[in-house]
Amino acid sequence: xxxxxxxxxxWIPDNIMxxxxxxxxxxxxxxxxxxxxxxxxxxxxxxxxxNLEMLRCTDKFTVRDFVTERGLSxxxxxxxxxxxxxxxxxxxxxxxxxxxKTSDGGGGNQVIVCHDKSILDEKGxxxxxxxxxxxxxPKKQVGREWAYENRQPRKIxxxxxxxxxxxxxxPDFKFYCFNGEPKYCQVIANRRTNETxxxxxxxxxxxxxxxxxxxxxxxxxxxxxxxxxxxxxDIARSLSTGFPFSRIDLYSTATNxxxxxxxxxxxxGYGNFTPDDWDYKLGEMLNL
Length: 288
Prior knowledge:
Helix content: 25-40%
Strand content: 15-25%
CATH topology: D-amino Acid Aminotransferase, Chain A, domain 1
Shape: globular
């Protein structure tokens, strides 16, 4: 309902809507003339920074070309198929496990994870995909995130389901990169059960802050350092080069590192850090 209401308000200019949304979500007045907080600078990033490379990085299909051009095609999750419509999918030929999503979904939305096709409702599966594909592409994103206004045709992507053999939901390793240099790794685990969010520095020291989603806190026991952590840092450095800020999302299994996505506006800059002073500390790293 909120998304539908905001879609009807797409005629309101970004420089009016963004401060309004920032106030609603954070309870604070947005400072754009002298921003100091990370969340404030993300709003300025949305309003002012225009790098055409960002447009293809936010599309889950075209970003694969971007990753390949950076010499990292080996970290792309194997494709089962890419489809322009639901009718192109042969359900019977799909493997027992897979991930289906639309190329323009974001924030974990418009994703179906199939662990066992034998118990997957084919009719329901197709109905959900049909609903997603029939939705009109908004002129403006809900959070007014310019990089997602890429006008790429919506596609259905079906990929191999990857697993680390330990977790039901493989953890996300999200590298916060500033001017091409990873500074912190955000680890999100147990998404479907008891989601936790932790931050580590590049020496894998557990940090005493978390965010941007105030509903979730750190894990009772900090995650172990991935064996391939140094290589993951190199990958994050390569993919983030050329952007003032980007978050590079990766997965790690026993033998592989896999690419997740590239995000430029975590939580659309409308979340909160706990404790609050880390909003300023990360803000000092974002040079616009």
